[in-house]
Amino acid sequence: MTVDTAPPVLLINPFYPIDENPTPPLGLAFLAGVLEATGIHVSVLDFVVFPYSRDFLKSHMAAVAPKLVGATSVTMTFDNAISVIRDVKTIDPEVVTVMGGPHVTFRAEETLAEHLDLDVVVIGEGEQTLVELVRAGTDRNLWEAIPGLVFRKGDGFRRTPPRAFADLDTLPLPARHRIPLGRYRALNLAISMTSSRGCPFKCIFCVGRKMVGAKVRYRDPVRVVDEMAYLAGLGFIQINMADDLFTAKADHCTAVCGEILRRGLKVKWTSFARVDTVSLPVLQSMAAAGCTAVSFGLETGNRDILKTIRKGITLEQVIAAVGMCNEAGILPHASFILGLPGETPETIEETMAFGRKLEAMGVSYGFHLLAPFPGTDVRDRSADYGIRILTDDWTQYHANSAIVETEAADKALLDRIAGDWRNRFDAYLGDIQRRMAIGEAEPEEAQQIDNLMHTILIYELMMASLMETVGTWPVEDPADPNSLETLATRLADKSKYNEGDLKKSLERSRQQGDLRCVTSDGQVRWEWVDYL
To answer: Does residue 128 sit in the same domain as residue 46?
Structure first.
């Protein structure tokens, strides 16, 4: 690591709902890793697992004195991110405020025009761009020479040339020690990593290709498995291989799997794939190396819509891929998007019927509603595709309620179908709970409910700061084995949960190493193990 005189940096992960299954912010960890490698001090505030308050932000800024504060966002979290940026400017108007991520990458000028508290947007991959921006400080003349930026200049905006995509093997490992991994582990959430960047496909609803390039760039399989081995030791429920397309190149995929097997590494992981990029030998290699599930984006069961959205797959390829997954012993998961161009009640029924057919073949599947994100072809050419975009309220872009209509599928229809799907899932969980109450649920089903209830309880304790509020009291007996019972009693007074449920989840958290008791200065203090 070289010594750098650049001022401290604060990175922000804005609030993201727990029901979206967030994972520790990998993009911010990559940014923090590159900054640290150049000797720049960096800290991260993660408001996915910490409750946000302006006072908390102010106290942290006072402690680290950042001269640059950067936030990431996707479309759904943009409003939360810009709200934090606004508070940063009120706390210290001299701080340079930066935002990156797909949402602002594809509407940079509009965002800067609408939000004067934001100083600069980083376009696309941000690692090297952020390092150079930090070193340039507030000198906008120096910003001119940094590729990959958009910022105000005079009465307009300056967009510098695009930055070349990085050689992934030149990037340091993500600085996950700056991320509160312990809180994610306590919530039974997975942890993610990548072995490549890039997507050669042109689906009209996705910006992956525009963000990280059409040519897939691969990391050295040895380095990939080095990172996987590190993550395997952290005790997460699983590792998500978050590449846009892990199976894009069979040789790379099997090389990673071969390295896992060569080391005898025992690890549970999942990946994304396309049905036209898998083969039985590749899937068998993945299964042998610990892959338990593969997620396929199928989008629709209608052949014409598949062509319209430029998915480039056939229903026959779907059936073949599912059969190969079953033969290899990997759970196939399928996701569909309703409300795509050309959607009608009849095409929706085709998709639902295809989902039922796949379910009978052992596929788990789910539905989302189309969200026309900035930068997507379906948004840019919505009129050509016969799509009506109903709102630019970015908080609604969570894909669970209709924000587009087609000529034949209106908002009411799409919302009803999405609601019926949620009701079906709720009924499924309710049936398991009913059978648990009479002792008829299978152990795997009961574990699913227990995990869900545990996650909800722990999350609500975290986001209400109850451990910090009532988890400290004077020591009566330093060896008191019932102090956890005392904690449960104190939490029950401040939450909706009873002492029995609290004690069960707290004991589980303590045994997993996510919760600890510290006795010092005459006080017993219970705290979450934030950093691993």
So the answer is: yes
Mean pLDDT score, 198-224: 95
What is the CA angle 325-326-330, rounded to 5?
55
Q: Which residue in this structure is represented by tokens 């600085």?
A: 175
Residue 75 falls within a domain, yes or no?
Answer: yes
Residues 326 and 367 in one domain: yes
Radius of gyration of the chain (CA): 24
Residues 211 and 357 in one domain: yes
What pLDDT band is residue 7 in, cutting at 50, 70 and 90?
confident
CATH number at residue 393: 3.20.20.70
Structure tokens at 475: 């020591």
pLDDT at position 481 over 70: no
Instruction: Give the number of residues written for the chain.
Output: 532
The 8-class DSSP code of residue 381 comes to T
- On average, the pLDDT of the chain sits at 95
The amino acid present at 355, given as its one-letter code, is G
Q: From CA 259, how far away is CA 416, in angstroms rounded?
A: 47
pLDDT at 53 over 60: yes
Mean pLDDT of 45-70: 97
Please check whether residue 348 is in contact with residue 307, taking contact to mean a CB–CB distance below 8 angstroms. Answer: no
Contact 338, 369 (CB under 8 A): yes
**Residue 65: other Cβ atoms inside 10 A:** 12
Residue with tokens 């508070």: 87
Q: What is the pLDDT of residues 237-283, one digit of tens each?
A: 999 999 999 999 999 999 999 999 999 999 999 999 999 999 999 99
The alpha-helical segments, DSSP class H, found in 268-335 are 280-288, 303-308, 315-328
- The answer to whether residues 270 and 388 belong to one domain is yes
> Residue 6: pLDDT above 80?
no
User: What pLDDT was estimated at residue 478?
Assistant: 56
Percent share of the chain, pLDDT over 90: 93
| CA pair distance 426, 424, nearest whole angstrom | 5
Whether 431 is covered by a domain: the verdict is no
Which CATH number does the domain housing residue 58 bear?
Answer: 3.40.50.280
Residues 382 and 341 in one domain: yes
87: CB partners within 8 A, 6+ apart: 54, 57, 58
State how far the alpha carbon of 375 is from the alpha carbons of 18, 210, 341, 412, in Å.
Answer: 26, 8, 17, 26
Q: Is the pLDDT reported for residue 152 higher than 90?
A: yes
Instruction: Tell whether 44 is covered by a domain.
Output: yes
- Residue percentage of the chain with pLDDT more than 70: 98
- H or E segment at 298? strand 291-299
Which residue segment(s) compose the domain that 90 sits in? Answer: 9-159
Q: Are residues 290 and 366 in the same domain?
A: yes
| Position 4 confidence tier, pLDDT thresholds 50, 70, 90 | low
Taking alpha carbons only, the member of 524, 515, 470, 462 closest to residue 492 is 470
- Domain annotation covers residue 438: no
Instruction: Give 158's strand partners.
Output: 151
Residues 101 and 211 placed together within one structural domain of the fold? no
Residue 291 has pLDDT above 90, yes or no: yes
